[in-house]
């Protein structure tokens, strides 16, 4: 491979950094909406008040503006962590908008573009850099493909009780790693993520079955992933050589009414 002169290499690096600095995206509007409409009940599962947002024309306009600004951003030219944050925030904002547009409803699964659909995930509801996108595109063709990162599953929220919770603030590239780990710990240490039944059976979220390939592609790999984020008591139970014997998931809408 031909080596560039050191001086030229430095110029190219500087130019690349300059482009990255010129392109940025602000997530303050999304953080404001999350802080206003996300609550944390005693069960520890955050809820989003879709009904209240639907009734607030000003905040609905803010949501539309935020989505429009993200869609107008050349996300591919951001730094890697900023790209991840932008895609995850866009996924979550689009999902909230989709629920509000169809609210009230009992589950996101009730939103079907046609009778044979299983939920709304294959609906084209966004466009970024000239590419029409579905929620599945963002999660499975972008986030899961471009990042070898199992914590992606704690970053996107499908508006369901069984899903990892929406955070109280937007994802930001600057704090992405610590925030993803915090979200992973939050979910793993909640019964809807991991639970030992009274008979000693270990049951985990269906997320670890649906996307097992992202968690070591085996039950053992899933358990090793869980240990990384388990609190000491749970980790001790997982260290005892247990096997996963069941999977659970609750598709009920994550709103305060449920």
Summarize the structure in words:
The chain is globular, with a radius of gyration of 20 Å. α5 (80-102) runs antiparallel to α6. Mean pLDDT is 92; it is low at 8-20. Helices cover 45% and strands 9% of the residues. The strands form 3 sheets. A 3-stranded mixed sheet has the order 5-6-7. A two-stranded antiparallel sheet has the order 1-2. It has a two-stranded antiparallel ribbon with strand order 3-4. The N and C termini lie far apart (61 Å). β3 and β4 form a beta hairpin. It has 10 helices and 7 strands. The protein is mainly alpha-helical and 258 residues long.
Strand order of the largest sheet: 5-6-7
Order of helices and strands: HHEEHHHEEHHEEHHHE
How does the overall form come out from the CA principal axes?
globular
End-to-end separation in angstroms reads 61 Å
Question: Hey, roughly how much beta strand do the residues contain?
Answer: 5-15%
Discrete helix count: 10
| Rg (CA only) | 20 Å
Structural class by SSE content: mainly alpha
Largest sheet: 3 strands, mixed
Q: Mean of residue pLDDT? A: 92
Helix content: 40-55%
| Number of DSSP strand runs | 7
Low confidence ranges: 8-20
